[in-house]
Structure to design on (278 residues):
């Protein structure tokens, strides 16, 4: 069976993933999160003798999560659909909740601190020692020392930040897709090599049109900026590209990320103050 990614590359267009149902990843994600949390509980209940085995176990659980989530995250970046967004945002919220649970787990923090304070620590390799030190740093930066009220605020802020980051990316993608320019004659694209013209013809075909089409996706943008002799065209696509998802540009204000940027900065400032930074 032919790889759809390879077929899409030949035809200069993305493969059609609209028929997939990525929401099915959620049961698998929930199972892996449950196994991770149950595993931590089991390791901590087994006593302090687990030593470095706890780090290895956490690495395995984290790797399993990454293998399940990475394809969803990647597809959300390069294909995008309403179903993918639903699955991605639902999964992102669960992963953020899990990260907060893990980083504010007093027992887990104590276990890593026990590794640092143990007589065996000096026998660890430099890499092992650095792993433990960075974990302890990250526990502190995630609010493990905070009061229960401040920890709740930390979790609220980080969850909101994850949603804002996702919405920022969605706005950028929507603004990128919204702009295009059609050419009925190749003369308007003077300077572009045959391979780049074929790429733009493929984009036009994917929109059900003849001729050539320039959009703001990287291959098209780079083709025009690199080879087009028409300075006006280069200026037009450059300005459209750098003003995407802003209060300026061709779709001024429609997918404006400026309010999101302001809220993110405000929330990051609140987090910094919450953790004792100036």
């Amino acid at each position: 069976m032919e790889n759809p990614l390879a077929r899409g590359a030949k035809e200069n267009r993305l493969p059609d993933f609209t028929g997939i149902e990525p929401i099915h990843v959620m049961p698998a994600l929930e199972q892996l999160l449950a196994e991770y949390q149950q595993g931590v509980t089991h390791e901590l209940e087994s006593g302090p003798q687990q030593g470095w085995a706890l780090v290895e176990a956490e690495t395995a659980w984290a790797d399993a999560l990454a293998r399940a989530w990475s394809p969803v995250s990647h597809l959300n970046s390069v294909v995008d659909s309403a179903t993918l967004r639903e699955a991605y945002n639902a999964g992102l919220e669960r992963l953020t909740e899990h990260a907060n649970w893990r980083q504010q787990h007093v027992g887990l923090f104590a276990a890593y601190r026990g590794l640092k304070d143990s007589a065996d620590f000096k026998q660890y390799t430099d890499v092992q020692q650095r792993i433990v030190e960075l974990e302890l740093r990250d526990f502190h930066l995630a609010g493990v020392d905070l009061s229960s009220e401040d920890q709740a605020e930390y979790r609220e802020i980080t969850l909101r930040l994850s949603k804002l980051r996702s919405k920022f990316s969605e706005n950028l993608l929507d603004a990128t897709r919204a702009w295009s320019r059609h050419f009925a004659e190749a003369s308007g694209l003077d300077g572009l090599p045959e391979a780049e013209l074929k790429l733009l013809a493929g984009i036009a075909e994917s929109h059900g049109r003849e001729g050539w089409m320039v959009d703001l996706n990287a291959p098209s943008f780079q083709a025009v900026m690199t080879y087009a002799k028409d300075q006006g065209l280069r200026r037009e696509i450059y300005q459209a590209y750098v003003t995407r998802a802003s209060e300026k540009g061709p779709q001024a204000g429609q997918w404006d990320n400026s309010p999101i940027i302001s809220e993110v900065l405000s929330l990051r400032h609140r987090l910094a103050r919450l953790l004792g930074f100036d």
In short: Strands lie at 180-183, 212-215.
